[in-house]
# Entry
Amino acid sequence: MRFLETVMGIPMSIDVRDGDDVGDGAPAAERAFAALRDADRRFSTYRPDSEVSLANAAVRDAAEPSGDFREVVAIGEGVARASGGAFRIRHPDGTWDLDGVVKGWAAARAARELDAAGLHDYCLNAGGDVVVSGSPGDGRPWTVGIRSPHSPGGMLAALSVRSGAVATSGAYERGDHIVDGRDGSIPRTLLSATVVADDLTTADVWATAVFALGSAGIPLALQAGARGVLVLDAAGRLTGAGELTFAPPASAA
# Structure
């Protein structure tokens, strides 16, 4: 069963491969999408009534920030410290810039809804950042393709993952949207940074941090909980570290 929806302006999908013994996966998929929609309502800077927009406009009431807001900020602050400031959660004017945390955090929450429903074999794809569990069938692992920065239809590599998360950061899809928080410059040393981790929050934030830091960010990501890191530098060199299992690109789905 495959479910599709556009959330945060990004196409997202949930592919459920569990057998008939778990019943209809549609209610669980709806709860997962609801978690994503809720995060968008609360953290989108394009919504003037979102919590982050109200905080940035300094028009919030006297109530404390929500627990989720504090959680997202704490995650971002932790990565900012660990990366020496290369990862940032504030703009130079002091307003919040939480986009680097929210998508991975929200998708990880959505995956927990699938787990809570008793699903074991699924793939949640949040605009190219992926959470997988179990197997797509026959006990084999999932194959997660990493898009080539040189060709929209090409694959840089394909990873074999049984349960975990994969996130990739680069400038080839959304342009120069990542900055080095230390000086505001646009990172140029890497074309692509992919992180494999147990959860998508970790994978997503550290893919961004590694892209900002360059190859120097690889050991920092591994220290922070990444299972593996794969980077492509501007000279075309592909470097992997940690636990990475490659699969034939042709089998990526």
Observations:
- The chain has six helices and ten strands.
- The first strand starts at residue 2 and ends at 7.
- Helices lie at 26-43, 51-56, 67-82, 99-116, 200-213, 217-223.
- The first helix runs from residue 26 to 43.
